[in-house]
Structures
1.
Amino acid sequence: MTEKHSLKKTSRPPLLEFENVTVIKGDKNVLKSLSVTIQEGEHIAILGPNGAGKSSFIKAVNREYYPQPHDDVVFRIRGEEFWDVFAMRSFIGIVSNDLQYAYTREVSGREVILSGFFSSIGLFNHTVTPAMEERTDEILKFLEIEHLQDRPMTMMSSGEARRFLIGRALVHRPAALVLDEPTTSLDLHALHTFRNLMRKIAQSGTGIILVTHNLHDIIPEITRIILMDDGRFVGDGEKEKMLTDTKIGGLFNIPVKVREESGWYYATGY
């Protein structure tokens, strides 16, 4: 049975509100009666094995996937059932491996960030304003990637390219940044840099929704963990109560020891 996370009531509508959301693609239920409420400013990790449905959940958030229609379905962002996708990107920024693959082309890092204003892959006949250039300069400085801005994406490492995609997602100052398996293919140095960057973003006031299968991705600022398996949320609660030997061992179907060190969690013994 899924454990429910108690949420503080606020006057503003939740950032995200799903109730009984089921998504079918082809002959497969990729999401099965998902229910979750996420408030603005929360730092959350959605943790589960490969194939758990994590990427499908992100596609539902991004309105690439829509739920099966039923009377008891709730599918809201900021209290609204329907959103223009371009307007939605102004308060939920999403960085995915699909997006990184789409940017495997001769586009400079600066152009990647500027393209976020137009929700395009690169710049075409778009009119870039001085305000957009100024915001891009702010992001380059904040992410500490000014020295890479003229380098083509095809010449960057995975970690460098991911930081520009984050910059692209931040152009509209979104309320939350959704990161889908962000440390895939990163070496130890790049992982260290990227985790520090996530902490900096979280501390700046942007909510983090981290989707991962790695405990070591979960930065100390994340306080809530949602466990996911087979298209369902199977646990939802405070980090200390979710990241235990029993829960993580059961989620990944292995004997495991979970240890905490200075706010970071690691799995050993498997």
2.
Amino acid sequence: MKVIIPLAGKGSRMRPHTHTKPKALLPVAGKPAIEHILEQTEALKPTEYIFITGHLKDVIEDYIAENHDFKATFIEQKKMDGTASAINLARKHMDEAVLIVFNDTLFRTDLTKLVTSKDDGIIWAQEVEDYQRFGVIVVDENNHITKIVEKPNEPISKLANIGLYYIKNYELLKEALEKVCSGEAGKAGEYWLTDAFEYMIEHDAKMKVLPVDGWYDTGKPETTLESNAKLLKHEIRTAPQESVIHEPVFIGDDCEIENCVIGPNVTIMKNCTIKNAVLSNCIVDENTIIENITLSDSIIGCNTTLEGTHKEKKASVLLGDHGVTRLH
């Protein structure tokens, strides 16, 4: 089995953080977001990872080379023309079953079920109330897909497609991708992977739908903070001095935490200095300094300094990398 992970998007909803760092490398619950995906998929022992890159592609390539020793192939998507187009770039590498994982959302599920699957493919889904925001899946009595509808106006289904797919019948997927991407583009000039799945279903593919145990959005700041809170496990590698900790909290290596109230739902990456501060529901990237401030619902980039005038100074901010901010 091979794993395909599309990473080409600019992550515009996560700016300013994605100006200098790919969205997949932004920290969530104590580690880069992509590590949550790799931890689950590496257990399947894939023969190859295929990363579809674009924005800041060199940063992704360097990170994978420095932190992992699995076989990795990087393919640049030069034109942002849809999810089918992204996966189609890997078509010539599809010589066995593939697991496709979009990095906008993190997930928790038992992927070992795919090993014994007799179906042509598996699509993981979760019930949602705001179904109009998603591509939704209609299933039959055996939980096989009958159709996929993008952002429906009518409540034909509340099963949202979360962006996690296992395709055993890779030859039919390749045929479907070629057909979709050689045809007329859809809305906004994009080719959709769901259209390829529709083609497969029309050609008698049995596509099973399975639920996930958890689904965590990292597409925008507010949902990233929510996902950070849900995924956090209490882990402190540096003993804070004269401070109060409200779990769950992650504090990385070589941090200096002094006279603070930290938590709940706070990630602080390595080599940070936090003094005389109160932090709740925050993500702080590495090598950052925060002093004399009460901070909530904030994401702070790496190598950044944020200073207030006293501990009671309250703020909620989104600061990118390599900045200096002083609040008076």
3.
Amino acid sequence: MKFRQQPDNILRELGIYEPEDIDLDLVAYSLNADIKRTNLTNCEGSIIGTDIKAIITINNNADPQRQRFSLGHELGHWVNDRGKNLTYRCDLNDMQQRISSKKGFRQQREVRANQFSAELIMPNHIYSRYLNNLDATTDAINYLANEFNVSRTSAAIRFVEACQHPCMLICWDKNGNRRWFSRNPIVPDSIWPHRRVMQPHSTLKLSTGLEVDADKWIANEDSEDYVVIESVFSNGYDFLSLIWWKDEEQLN
């Protein structure tokens, strides 16, 4: 995704090369944006700006990881959408937008702001070093979430985007309905997860690094002929299954 300024470049200019040094308040200061934290209702973050100066307000009732992502999101608006009358008020739904709609101009900007935030908090030039020798399991996601001080969901999404393993992340509601999914670039577009899993109470059991028949998660006709490595975790609202094709030949 194209940004007016790449998150990696912004952080490098500040001499930031380790996850513990990613100070978003410092980043905001360097970009001429002031930060306020206060109680917001039905809103996770907002920004008011001109073409040279911005004021960003973050909901201080949210958990610290959510506040970090919200700040990164608003900085994404500041970097990419600035103008004489920049005004955004972003709720939780905006922060969860991942797929752009050609007809939805506002949605496109929210998706871009979310991607900017993810790459600012887990930048390529740092995050890639931490992926070395990590298998696609819940243990790896927990490790990355702890190192970068992000939610497991955010860590898993970035893991799928950046890792060298063919894998897929699928989000399910508690009734087993698929909410969204993300493929690693190695996984062909022809491979799709089920729209709904049967018996969600037994299917969506927490696991890490468990070998299962692929048709448990994958809808393609030939999925009954091979296995995948599954890891299942919850974010408190939904369940996420991380699927790894350990044998890449099975993708053919």
4.
Amino acid sequence: MGRLMAAKKTQRRFGYVRKMPSGRYSASYTDPNGRRRFAPDTFSSKPEAVDWLTVQESLLVRRKWSDPDRGKVPFGPYASVWIVERPGLRPRTVYLYQWTLAKHLEPSFGRIFLSDIDPAMVRRWRLRLLDDGVSVSMAAKAYRLLRAILNTAVDHDELIRRNPCRIAGAGSETPHERPVLTVAEVMDLAARVPDRFRAMILVATFGTLRYGEVSGLQRADLDLDAGTVFVRRSLTEVRGTGLVLGPPKSRAGLRMVSLPGVVVEELKRHLRLYVDPEPYAFVFTGPKGKPIRRGNFNPLVRWTQVVASMGKVGLHFHDLRHSGNTLAAQSGASTRDLMARMGHDSMNAAIIYQHATRRADRAIANALDDQLRAGSRDENPDLGPAGGLVPA
């Protein structure tokens, strides 16, 4: 009885502070629904308890308060539903999200309530991934997925008040600079692969198409009189399902691309030799006339040996699109035109290619400037290194 009487409860304008028999302080308040809410822990001093109440009162006044019980939802089931209900995802993207969730997120967060995931927990999880040998690129992908799921919990479902994913740069990838082929190198590569894949190399490069886009082309997508390709589908491989012909990667991926005349002539020859006459016959197929799985392409063309023979060890098929984008930027195309050709919603990628082109152009100008200055010094030895007069 004496212990109970020793505990003191102080009523404030907002909330209550109570001194416990242990000497620590508890804090509580009544929420808008009439329920008593207690601080998740006790405090070593009364001012600390008052500070906590002040924060809760501020949230209520600013209408930023959220019911802490709303976040008592396990992350794993919530994330699984999030992937299924995400609009516009391609089958391949759904598979990759589900794989990343099962491999890298559920082991750490699956049974944790959304409201219990805090920044420190996210930091420790990311460090464990990297310590366990997960690549920086894969860790960034997993972090972006976690952040996107929790963004929905904040902004749309209002289950938590703030996203705990706050690690600066954790979602960014800094891949190594990829090689860029010259026009002559692209033509050389096309000449080295088996003839039925020659046009595929040229269309992927000079049409700046992704692998799924070029392998998903059908005869009806080509208008060779106009010299255009209509990119309207992409062929992707989904584990457990096989090849799936679906929409492009994004809305901007649905586009019409003009091809150089040389590539158009090569395509005409290819159609005569290798493509069935039906409108929906695939343009690029393997020797048996079936669409080419991404994993089968390299062995079919002996890609590793071919690029090594050119001195381009490590070249990827995707580098053809990268080379085509670079060549398109060098033509002086506007940012909007590059975005349309590349099939990008965001102008960021187009600007990167334009910056690379401008850097190359500046390097040319600097080299010419060095030659001009060297020539001037030869003609007038009284000129200094910057072209100025040498003091007497």
